[in-house]
Amino acid sequence: MALLEIDNLRVHFDTDDGVVKAVDGISYSVDRGQTLGIVGESGSGKSVSSLTVMGLSRARNARISGSIKFDGKELLTASDDELRTIRGDDIAMIFQDPLSSLHPFYKVGTQIVEAIRTHRDVSKQQAYDRAVEMLGLVGIPEPRKRAESYPHEFSGGMRQRAMIAMALANDPKLLIADEPTTALDVTVQAQILELIERLQSEFDTAVVVITHDLGVVAEMADEIAVMYAGRIVEQADTDTIFAGPEHPYTWGLLSSIPKLDAPRDEELVPIAGRPPSLINLPGGCSFHPRCPYVKPAHMKVDPALEPLPDNARHKVACLLDSQTRRRLWRELREGTAPVEARADVMKDTPPEEAIEALAETEGRPAGTSVEEQPS
Amino acid sequence: MSETATSTETGAKRPGDGEPLMEVRDLVKHFPLTHGIIFQRKVGAVQAVDGISFDVMRGETLGLVGESGCGKSTTARLLLRLMDPTSGSIRFEGQEIADLSGDRLKRLRQDMQMIFQDPYSSLNPRKTIGTIIGEPFAIQGMHTGEGERKRTVQELMDVVGLNPEHYNRYPHEFSGGQRQRIGVARALALKPKLIVADEPVSALDVSIQAQILNLLRELQRELGLTLVFIAHDLSVVRHMCDRVAVMYLGRIVEMASSEELYAHPRMPYTGALMSAVPVADPRLAAGKKRQVLAGDVPSPTNPPQACRFHTRCWKAQEICRQEDPPLEVKEGGNVAACHFPLTDAEVAERVPTFRAQRQQG
Q1: CA dihedral sign, ordered A139, A141, A146, A152
Q2: Are the C-beta atoms of residues B222 and B59 closer than 8 Å to each other?
Q3: Mean pLDDT for chain B?
Q4: Which of A57-61, B157-161, B288-292 has the lowest mean pLDDT?
């Protein structure tokens, strides 16, 4: 049994403007010692799903359903007190912004001591020694002296390391890292990633890393889930996601980033438009307004996340058949622009439906015209 | 040092435009640290930029990279004269601009504009975007007729891919990517010769980031703009820039064409930066030896003596603590300030692009 099993989790928020479907039916599991990467743009629901695991999205206007099983225990129905004993002990979280996540008024050492003494029955001195040990472990020089510092006396990288020290002080079984390195320089990012990997192999911790940086997941994750508009649209092991992705959104993400080994004059192929509002999701496949390969039927049918026939661990939510998808991805890598590829898919569509489909996709938000012109 | 840094060997690779638009020599910016309230004693200085020299060629994109606190944003502001340099010379089209002021500086601003990092705080929330994009005209007293200004602004909006009908909307009605387009339109309004873009895409999602990068490249091709592009994302810099200058603690430590820099960095600091970039390709990432730099960047108030990188450099020896290495041409054509530049073998171990290019070649 996996350490963390999430099944059909939904997190909806009632607001004055309508129901925000932040997470809309996602399932995944993570094993001990394994790393799952969750990628997606802002507003795709990746942070809300992990906050829910921590029990941190229990607002009055939140409606949560589904199941989150941690170590066999259901977390969604657990009381706040029960959650409090798990949170920070068995499950720890590293937040994106280390400055606003540390209390400016207390010394760094004191804050780690508090995290330890909340869960462990140890003396102040023992907890303090442990805090110093953790600070040393995450690579803060002169840890005994720096434990007496306030957060503002730390640099960004040191604060992030202090956060990690706090998160790992109780040897959690599961570590959730929400954009752990986004605010940091590449050199510091490399230090932090190295640190998480080292600690993971030492303590056999399960890690969920949430990021928009495909580079970070490529180097850290064993498995990747790509989220779009509150759902997982593609899930597979890391090599498959990068070598043979089958969802047009994943293709879009991969062609949006400049590659270090591509010729410099190669044009980036951005995804047209922008992510939909989570209040008013497009009908059918929620990616269809931005998808270059949309067919009329895709605006009516909502695709389910289904395993591929020849690889059960690779799941895709797309209405195109797998053969077409593989052909399109091959063509994309060979440099066919999506507009040309779209004409290709549209060939098999009756003309009147194709016109209707095009008319619908033309109604995109303003400011997308430039990207669509083939250069 | 200035001679070697700007020699033709690192010059633009584009045909027909070997002439510099901007020449920077020994540029220094120190921010004084003072003590006391009335009689302020100077107790030290933050050496944000400490003697840098480079040329910006007409029509090229020059990248500035480095960790936070290395002085790249200060350099950008100095180039545009948004700050006064402590000393040094900046020549724009042959004219010395380091000591310009008043009307002459205002006229100069027509030729150089800036795109800012944060599309949320760089637009006035109480003005319509028509007013925001037309503001440069108001300041310079151009296109004074109401109808004429509106028409010009709407043309600009069209150029950057905004719907001209949104002339009367406010910034909060736009997404991050569209706001950044507004920033680009505003920078283009006066038809500048030089645009300095300070982290123009760092605040955007990847898919939107690609839209803005493509827009900038397209505009540069069409309008013959010269760009100084500041970013910390090295793959974005490689994609955008013809030449790249790597900064560390207020100095330029390496400078080369993009191809050369990414194929064979010579300065161990550049090597470490490139090694640290996570590669979105498991095949390249596997087998990479990640060069992790220990510790943080030292304080620019009290930078290390001699080679400023010696405290974090794995190749440092006694001479690095004694003598400041000159910026000079190294093997492969890079200009670097280093006593012990990286060998190809050392690069191959750490930098995935090196191997990728070898595979291609």
Answers
A1: negative
A2: no
A3: 86
A4: B288-292
What percentage of chain A has pLDDT greater than the value 70? 89
Cα A166 from Cα A159, distance rounded (Å):
10
Of B181, B213, B285, nearest to A268 by CB-CB distance is B213
What is the enclosing helix (H) or strand (E) of B329?
strand B327-329
Q: Which CATH superfamily is domain B2-34+47-111+192-360 in?
A: P-loop containing nucleotide triphosphate hydrolases (3.40.50.300)
Give me the DSSP letters along A49-115: HHHHHTT----TTEEEEEEEEETTEESTTS-HHHHHHHBTTTEEEE-S-HHHHS-TTS-HHHHHHHH
Residue A242, min C-alpha distance to chain B (Å)? 6
CA gap A311, B31 in Å, rounded = 60
Q: For residue B278, which of A333, A192, A140 has the smallest C-alpha distance?
A: A192
Residue A332 Cα distances to B247, B260, B284, angstroms: 36, 28, 20
Q: What is the pTM for the complete model shown?
A: 0.83
Residue written as token pair 């001679």: B3
CB count within 10 Å of CB B345 equals: 7
In sequence order, what are the residues at sequence separation of 6 or more whose Cβ sits closer than 8 angstroms to the Cβ of residue A342? A292, A293
Per residue in A71-105, pLDDT (tens digit) is 999 999 999 899 988 988 899 999 877 777 889 99
Question: Does the beta-carbon distance from B280 to A218 stay under 8 Å?
Answer: yes
Q: Residue A371: its chain B contacts at CB < 8 A?
A: 161, 211, 214
Q: How far is CA B202 from CA A157, A333, B118, B231, in A?
A: 18, 26, 8, 8
Phi, psi of A137 (to 5 degrees): -60, -35
In Å, how far are B172, B193, B208 from B187, measured between CA atoms?
19, 11, 19
Question: Which stretches does DSSP call E strand in B75-211?
Answer: 87-92, 95-96, 112-115, 194-198
* Contact assessment for residue B178 and residue B162, using Cβ atoms and an 8 Å cutoff: yes
Q: Are strands B243-248 and B251-257 parallel, antiparallel or unpaired?
A: antiparallel
Handedness of CA A39, B294, A136, A201 (dihedral sign): positive
The span from the CA of A54 to the CA of B110, in Å, is: 53
Chain B residues touching residue A190 (CB < 8 angstroms): 275-276, 278, 290-293
Residue B93 has pLDDT above 60, yes or no: yes
**Distance of alpha carbon A11 from alpha carbon A24, whole angstroms:** 6
Instruction: Determine the residue among A154, A179, A185, A196 to mutate to test chain B binding: the one whose Cβ has the most chain B Cβ atoms within 10 Å.
Output: A185
A72 CB-contact burial (10 Å; exposed 0-12 / middle 13-18 / buried 19+): exposed
Give me the residues of A, 268-297, that contact B with CB < 8 A: 268-271, 274-275
Distance of residue B133 Cα from the nearest chain A Cα, in angstroms: 16
Mean pLDDT of B327-333: 88
Which residue, chain included where needed, has tokens 């759902």? A231
pLDDT score, position B26: 95
User: Taking all residues of chain A, what is their mean pLDDT, rounded to a whole number?
Assistant: 85
Q: Which residues of B touch A254 (CB under 8 A)?
A: 280
Query: In Å, what is the CA distance from A259 to each residue of A7, B263, B268?
Result: 35, 14, 22
**What residue spans define the domains of chain B?**
2-34+47-111+192-360
